[in-house]
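Comment thread on ticket #2218

A.B. wrote:
> Attaching the input chain for the structure job we discussed in standup.
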Amino acid sequence: MRQRDSTRLSVLLVIGAIVATGCASRRISVQDYGIPPCPPSAQLNLFSPNALQCWFVAPHGRWRTLDTQSHLEALVVFVEARDVRDAETIARRLVADTGASPYSEILAYVRPEMPDVTSRVRRVRWTRGGAFETMDF
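C.D. wrote:
> Ran it. Output below, let me know if you need it in another format.
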């Protein structure tokens, strides 16, 4: 019985060493979740598939698009940002990227990257008339 337990322990130690070696060689930063900075192609088209896989730069830190949804004449964009103070800057970039927009309104919901109990989601609403309205939830 002891030899069997010893063999199991040896196998588990070998598996643990293999896993640890593989993880150590990959070097994923907890800070970036393995998500790279955005390449130039994503910078040129914020709604491209590449733009869903990288970090953009804003005045108070980074941000990324989590999801986009189109509902009739409205575009809804869900964003994660280091600081929600960048919400309007992000919304302005999104609106500018749509060009001659087919949308009557664009809503950007910006949540903090590392939320806590005091965190809020900031919504920025753009309408075809060119107005930007901000609301915190």
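A.B. wrote:
> Thanks. Noting for the ticket: The helical segments are 2-26, 40-44, 87-97.
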